[in-house]
Design a protein that fits this description.
Length: about 150
Amino acid sequence: MQRRLLSGMYECSLDNRFRLAIPARLREPFAEGAMVGWWIDECLVVVPSAEWTSLIDRTFGTMSVLDDEARELNRFLSAGAFHHELDKQGRIPLTAELREHAGIEDNKVRLVGTGEYLEIWEPGRIAERFAKFRREGVSHHAKRLAARVS
């Protein structure tokens, strides 16, 4: 059975112990746990544990360890990634280091589904990025991306 894509955007609150409850409709892929870590943008990534290695291999697998930038990126992503089991309420902890990377200073976050993983954003940061993307023109970006793929 193929699982549903992780999609949508959700306003979430962290509890007083800085735990995030993954919305119930998104929890099924995380039955075996979640990898939570620093991500490429100023956000956090949440990946089903069973899919973490595959995501990293597909995304960065062809980079050489002899390349300084590739090594730095690999080190950064690996150092900031931690496995967590969801508790009975579907929560995962967000450590101080994780929150600092994403600029999360209060208990509000925005969870964004990106297909195969989730991103955790400080609400103002993602709102600003989406507004900039719209101002620049969504179709303009789509055409540029299509030209690179062709």
